[in-house]
Amino acid sequence: MNNPISDRSLFVKAFYGLLLRDLRVISRELAPFLLRVGMQPLLFLFVFTYIMPRMAGGSPMASTAGPGFGTVLLPGLMAVAIMFCGIAAVALPLSTEFGSTREIDDRVMCPVPVAAVALEKVVFSALQSIVAAGLVIPMAIWIPASPVYPDLHRWPLMAIVLVLSSLLAGALGLAIGSSVSPRHIGLVFSILVVPITFLGCVYYPWAYLDKIRWLQIAVLLNPIVYICEGLRSAVTPQVHSMPVWIVLPALVVFLAILGRLGLRAFLRRVIS
Amino acid sequence: MIVEIEALTKVYEGKQRVVAVDGIDLEVKEGEIFGLLGPNGAGKTTTIGVATTRTLPTSGKVRINGIDVVDQPARARRSIGVVPQFNTLDRSLTIFENLYYHCRYFGFSHAQARDRSDQLLAQFLLTERRKAFPAQLSGGLAQRVQIARAIAHRPTVLFLDEPSAGLDPQSRLAMWTAVQSLRKDGITVLLTTHYMEEADALSDRVAIVDHGRLLALGSPQKLKDTFGAQTIIQLTLRQTDQLAALAAELATRSGVQNIETLDDGLRLFTTGAEGLLPDLIQSAARLGLRDIAINEPSLETVFIHLTGRDLRE
Questions:
Q1: How many CA atoms lie within 13 A of B224 on its CB side?
Q2: Which pLDDT tens digit goes with each residue over A222-235?
Q3: ipTM of model
Q4: Other beta carbons within 10 Å of B207
Q5: Domain boundaries, chain B
């Protein structure tokens, strides 16, 4: 079609078309989406901040963590929600679309650079991540025995951390989805996603790791640490967290690295 | 010229170096249906891959509508429609939505995309299935949706890669009709196939490729006239020790133009089987005639003439 439409306006329209397609698909799966992002934080808060505190000192976790545990947990659970969204919204669908069906082909053939198709996936996943992280906040207020109120005074910081973290999760999903076959995607959950969440300072602040110095240094290679610590300083400033001037550059660096890796893997799958 | 392919090569480096395309030159004219005929592994899909911006050439140039596919892939894709070898319909969307969102990817507004999709559903007799999902469609229907989707953004050239692979005979005929009907929309078609009947029935011009090289090019009739206006009779024999003697004897019969000796028999290039056949059978019976195959003049005989092989081998 040799119409006079300019490249830039076509790019915007095509990108919007790709977003609309993903919105349509997710609108059909709204309930599974909510269950997927909501179940884990819901159960976590219920068990550790509702059941445990009522077990009169029976649980060591409850006694050490006490009611303050909910406050520690809130940013951590937001981080996990962001992470899982990135994986579920990009890695899982991409892995099948690249697999036997090659459904991605039609989108790859649209008249924009191929990288834009990958970028759209990351952006759409980031939008879902932000919604998922937002869902955790009311849960943290309603479920725990002693409610946890996020401090939203530092909303500009929260917005920046949320956006960077969500894009980071999407970029990780892109890297995984473009390089792992559908057969092995379950394995990636066990050997990559679960360890980086458990060792990502989700359930404890990074500063508390000073008793185990080697681990405290080792986890600095884990991008989830910066997501948690960034959200901690934004949402629950009363809990000690890493300084913002470390967190934000770290998030940007990890986003750049994972974005590059993800895009490379994507292009390798699309262009031979 | 809509499609210009110049000295195209594609080499896959690796443990085993594969030369998929070995210097192909082609030009496809506006409005024609062009067939790329060859056996599996001849380099047809790779050639289409380069032309549709999905494969990077090792050397050579491909231009679509004058646009270089390597320098400006995104712009070239505006002029390209593709029906790949496999069903790549979006499984998460209905048939209507497959068309609608395809239009949106190409910059159509909501109303334009909706109208175009409705029109295509009607044109390809798919209106009843608009709300079905791709998984619910038969192979023939899915193929029709893929063609409709590929031309939805009104490309100037449509690439069809092995369009009848996996289709039953009836769906194949329906697909042929659909492809021929594109002619009146002025869409140029480049299709690959390893079915000679398909190339013969659909194409204005055919290029025969094998091992990444172009062997012959022309209208089906011209190819048959030039290379294969012969009926090929293949004799399979039990005893092969006196093949040479039998070949010499048969070569003297009128109507036999040429004879090739095979491992287990003879291949005769003749002006026609009629009249010749009883005689042949009688002579060959001495050596234990096991099987006799007759190929009337067709692109198949052209291919055998050019390569010494059957398309299906």
A1: 19
A2: 999 999 999 999 98
A3: 0.87
A4: 26
A5: 3-220, 230-296
The minimum CA-CA distance between B156 and chain A, rounded to whole Å, is 6
Mean pLDDT of the region A10-26: 94
Instruction: Enumerate the β-bridge partners of residue B208.
Output: B37, B216
Q: How many CA atoms lie within 13 A of A170 on its CB side?
A: 21
Shortest Cα–Cα distance, A204 to chain B (Å):
40
Q: How confident is the model at residue A85 (pLDDT cuts 50, 70, 90)?
A: confident
Question: Does the pLDDT value for residue B277 go beyond 60?
Answer: yes
Nearest by Cα to B98 from B64, B69, B136 = B136
Residue B264: band (very low, low, confident or very high) from pLDDT cuts 50, 70, 90: confident
Q: Which two tokens stand for residue A225?
A: 């640490």
Q: At the top level of CATH, which class does the domain B230-296 belong to?
A: alpha beta
CB contact under 8 A, B153 and A1: yes
Specify the higher pLDDT residue, A100 or B244. B244
- Nearest residue in chain A measured CA to CA from B158: A1
CATH level 2 (architecture), domain B3-220: 3-Layer(aba) Sandwich (3.40)
Rounded Cα–Cα distance for residues A265 and B129 (Å): 37
Whether A2 and B153 lie within 8 Å, measured CB to CB: no
Whole-angstrom distance, CA of residue B79 vs CA of residue B5: 16
Task: Sheet with B205-210: list strands edge to edge.
Answer: B80-83, B157-161, B188-193, B33-37, B205-210, B213-218
Decide if pLDDT at A138 tops 70. Answer: yes
Contact A14 B153 (CB under 8 A): no
Q: Do A271 and B54 touch (CB under 8 A)?
A: yes
Q: What is the pLDDT of residue A1?
A: 44
C-alpha–C-alpha distance, residues A164 and A152, integer Å: 18
